[in-house]
Design goal:
Number of strands of chain A: 8
InterPro entries (chains A, B): 3-OHacyl-CoA_DH_NAD-bd (IPR006176), 3HC_DH_C (IPR006108), 6-PGluconate_DH-like_C_sf (IPR008927), 6PGD_dom2 (IPR013328), NAD(P)-bd_dom_sf (IPR036291)
CATH superfamily of the largest domain in chain A: NAD(P)-binding Rossmann-like Domain
Family (chains A, B): Belongs to the 3-hydroxyacyl-CoA dehydrogenase family.
Strand order of the largest sheet of chain A: 3-2-1-4-5-6-7-8
Organism (chains A, B): Novosphingobium kunmingense
Structural class of chain A: alpha/beta
Number of domains of chain A: 2
CATH class of the largest domain in chain A: Alpha Beta
Largest interface: A-B, 104 and 105 residues
Strand content of chain A: 5-15%
Number of helices of chain A: 14
Largest sheet of chain A: 8 strands, mixed
Protein name (chains A, B): 3-hydroxyacyl-CoA dehydrogenase
Oligomer: homodimer
Mean pLDDT of chain A: 96
Low-confidence stretches of chain A: none
Shape of chain A: globular
Radius of gyration of chain A: 22 Å
Pfam family, one (chains A, B): 3HCDH
Chain lengths: 308, 308
Amino acid sequence: MAETARIAIIGGGFIGRSWATLFAQHGHEVVLQEPNATSRAAMFPAIRASIDQMAEAGLITEAAGDVLDRITSVSDLAAALDGADYVQENVPEDLEVKRALYRDMDRLADDTTVLASSSSSITCEQVCSELAGRERCLVAHPANPPHLLRAVEVVPAAFTSETTVERTVSLLSGVGQVPVVIGEIDGFVMNRLQAALAREALALVSAGIADADAIDSVVKHSLGLRWAFMGPFETMDLNAPGGFEDYALRYGVPFARLFGEDRWPVGAVASVHASRRKACHLDELDDRRNWRDRSLAALVRHVRQQKR
Amino acid sequence: MAETARIAIIGGGFIGRSWATLFAQHGHEVVLQEPNATSRAAMFPAIRASIDQMAEAGLITEAAGDVLDRITSVSDLAAALDGADYVQENVPEDLEVKRALYRDMDRLADDTTVLASSSSSITCEQVCSELAGRERCLVAHPANPPHLLRAVEVVPAAFTSETTVERTVSLLSGVGQVPVVIGEIDGFVMNRLQAALAREALALVSAGIADADAIDSVVKHSLGLRWAFMGPFETMDLNAPGGFEDYALRYGVPFARLFGEDRWPVGAVASVHASRRKACHLDELDDRRNWRDRSLAALVRHVRQQKR
């Protein structure tokens, strides 16, 4: 894809506007399509407010007007897709709505245009399997809002081409995102992890062990601060002398028993340990722990300084 | 408890040293008991390194030497408990080891001395039910390390007195911690939530959906950044126009179905919503969302500026 691509954003709601902000901030030419006139009128003031907030936080230095100049709005789908290199779709999570839209987009867009969906739950397989151009379709599910949070779950269907995945990953990396290619599964990774934590938290509330405030306090003053810069596996990897495998030896059985299971799955433990060792050799673990401790102290100071 | 209390820390390993650092930093007189001479010799250099790291991060301004002057080390348990207002125990997670120690502590300590355990899994009920002074015993399980992370799970047994809980909460709040009183359950809240997330993450690895690196990337560039300053329930509360109850209407069923369940537990949803409304009325939600967005942008900037 060219350094400056033409990006069509379909749907001018919260997520669509945030995508438009992100792509325009990084120099791309953005066409933001929204059929509803009232919603369309609200888009630019909302985007401007996002840019102002980023400027206030020191995340952007370019003048808001210059970023906004790279975004145009249209009501018509065909006009949005005309000449687009990449399409990011953000319509409601309704299978029939998405299917009808993708039939139109597949007909209107150039053969090589990537059609990416922001869907948080509906898979590409469900929406696109009947399309002639299904190989250029996939899901690119962002964290919310994508102009601030970098994670994007890139979820190809079995029929999605390698080229489509590569072009999507390349485009998203180029605008500072962290695209993560994963397999198709209900809820993808982000919402499955969120739902697993929420399920246990609600069970603790149901059992009268803790209320919502207690649970939020525990997470934000402990696990959340580690997961904010390491994620759960690196956190555990650094919390045992011999890395994740050692952690699993120490805590795998008691943690599994909390949920009526005997142990953690052996193959998954080996896989996680192998991934971690690619990122950080055993003899580098102590250096990494020093990095973690410095990062944690700096993060704690940052959070304590913020207004409540 | 007096403004300046005498604190006995039992066990000079990583957690014991961190507790000693925290209490001494806040002006208390600390006696750190460690029977092993080699471990005892290593304690002060390690504590000094922690204080230096805090100073580097701007978390402490007092000279390290002044903080260290408030910590003395002893090998003998009786000497440590002599005149102690509060005891924080940090011996290995071995039921028989803890039982033997608590028999000695209950005999040696003043009647009014609080005996708090850093145990991450063994409950006060298991260790202390036979003791004459069991009403002054409880668990105070810290996040690791307590001199940086504020969450402390305060877990009384059925026989623990109200006064013991109140004195513990007051002392911990006074040194800047966030004590959270919860009911007794295996793993308490912190490790149950960590284990629930780890369980789902390992299942995704087992199923070949994502590897460890992908999962860590998704969490640290999305959920982790929100949980670091809000916790999971406030995150969800702010993510639906009508608060948590509205969020549950939108996502409760699809999230529950990921785990083969029909819906989220109705009573728990109502309880969480009620807790959230005590913290933030419905008509204050928009202000709180603005706070969230500013906090998130500032946190994102902080994390991006840190060295990898």
